[in-house]
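Need a sequence for this fold. Nothing fancy.
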């Protein structure tokens, strides 16, 4: 087992990783920026090393500085959390070069799954459902037009190196496709240093359902079932839940098994999420693979009883998965509401500043993952998420009642938060019926 782990992250996920390490008897080293000098999570670490100024480029995104801190602190491994360097194959490679274990996949599997064209090719070879579209990347305008004529409009142009909604263009006819294909490639080249683009059928109305997976270094991979993350705004998830409501379990199970096959085929180790869109006939189409622990991992922890962060560490240390697929079962339902320091009435403008009052809910079936304490100042430099409220119930209905109760207990002052919006969403009729689509929230806010 590792003796000491460096956490290359901040905020709630840094604290989550510290807690997992403590329970595994591992010492923790945090790196932090000057903007985070008062970060409450740092007090729980055995050591904290300042690596630079507030801007992430000079601290949490600076590979050389983080590796230097890891060398000074003599750690065995680095946990990247999510965001920042978590999906950077060059960071996984830098750790390998310095003989520090990266808690996550190898640079090879990360690079393969991170390239959407390569990922789709591997998915197809392993009978993972994908959107009809170009086989590989599109080389010229005529090829794009030929493929689109075959699959039918509308189509979407995506960048092989894109993701999370960046570098996409929807084309509803041949003229629009011709007008966009070249610019899309040039834009991808400028944004990602990779001009490779592909096209696929565009699905207008869809739900976002993703499958949590774990792979070990011994060729085993399992899935931990699905999460429905359709309640989102501008590619930022707002509510996540499991299991996905109102979907035939047979279809979900087949999709989950497909996701685990893809992770196995990628020779993947660590936690991964395979994202899908589901259409109105409950057909699934893979979107992309997230090669990290995700923000919404607690939802799956609550329904499966499996500690995903601990598993990510044990896997990196070389442990085999301690369970088989048949040992993993869903118990009840879980819902997560992300709590953001933002003002929903001012176009979700970030609302950093001092949190004088922080009264988080508690009681049976309630979990709050947050680094905030009364008196903490939310810095303006980073993501506005300040915590996550996750509830577990024996049914979706019970979890919804519990979430309403917990949100009613939550008091955060004087900064603006989205707690009021979350109360509204949890009591929203369409949401309670289950199965809102990925555009629902944006329509509601209009
Ligand atoms: C799509 C799509 C419809 N059809 N692909 C957006 C993020 C990136 N991961 C892929 N995305 C989409 N791909 C096809 N063929 C619609 C989206 C999309 C979306 C997907 C998941 C969650 C929210 C979304 C919001 C807008 C568009």
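Here you go.
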């Amino acid at each position: 087992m590792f003796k000491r782990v460096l956490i290359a992250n901040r905020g709630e996920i840094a604290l989550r990783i510290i807690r997992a390490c403590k329970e595994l008897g591992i010492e923790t080293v945090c790196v932090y920026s000057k903007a985070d000098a008062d970060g409450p999570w740092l007090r729980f670490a055995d050591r904290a090393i300042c690596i630079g100024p507030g801007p992430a480029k000079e601290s949490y995104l600076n590979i050389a500085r983080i590796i230097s801190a890891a060398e000074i602190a003599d750690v065995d491994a680095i946990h990247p959390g999510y965001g920042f360097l978590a999906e950077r194959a060059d960071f996984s490679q830098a750790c390998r070069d310095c003989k520090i274990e990266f808690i996550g996949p190898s640079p090879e599997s990360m690079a393969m799954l991170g390239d959407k064209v390569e990922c789709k090719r591997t998915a197809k070879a392993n009978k993972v459902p994908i959107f009809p579209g170009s086989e590989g990347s599109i080389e010229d305008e005529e090829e794009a037009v030929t493929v689109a004529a075959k699959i039918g409009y509308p189509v979407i142009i995506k960048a092989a190196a894109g993701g999370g909604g960046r570098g996409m263009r929807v084309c509803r006819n041949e003229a629009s496709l011709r007008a966009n294909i070249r610019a899309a490639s040039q834009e991808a080249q400028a944004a990602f240093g990779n001009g490779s683009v592909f096209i696929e059928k565009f699905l207008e109305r869809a739900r976002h359902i993703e499958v949590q997976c774990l792979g070990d270094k011994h060729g085993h991979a399992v899935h931990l079932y699905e999460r429905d993350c359709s309640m989102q705004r501008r590619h930022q998830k707002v509510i996540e839940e499991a299991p996905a409501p109102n979907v035939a379990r047979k279809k979900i199970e087949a999709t989950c098994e497909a996701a685990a096959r893809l992770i196995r085929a990628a020779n993947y180790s660590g936690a991964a999420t395979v994202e899908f869109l589901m259409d109105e006939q409950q057909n699934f189409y893979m979107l992309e693979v997230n090669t990290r622990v995700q923000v919404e991992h607690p939802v799956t922890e609550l329904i499966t009883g499996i500690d995903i962060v601990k598993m990510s560490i044990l896997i990196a240390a070389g442990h085999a998965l301690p369970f088989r697929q048949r040992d993993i079962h869903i118990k009840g339902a879980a819902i997560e509401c992300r709590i953001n320091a933002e003002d929903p009435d001012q176009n979700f403008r970030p609302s950093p500043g001092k949190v004088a009052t922080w009264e988080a809910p508690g009681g049976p079936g309630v979990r709050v993952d947050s680094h905030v304490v009364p008196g903490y100042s939310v810095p303006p430099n980073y993501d506005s998420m300040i915590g996550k409220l996750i509830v577990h119930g024996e049914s979706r209905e019970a979890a919804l009642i519990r979430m309403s109760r917990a949100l009613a207990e939550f008091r955060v002052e004087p900064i603006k938060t989205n707690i009021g919006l979350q109360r509204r969403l949890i009591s929203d009729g369409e949401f309670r019926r289950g199965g809102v689509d990925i555009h629902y929230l944006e329509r509601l806010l209009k």
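For context: The radius of gyration is 22 Å.
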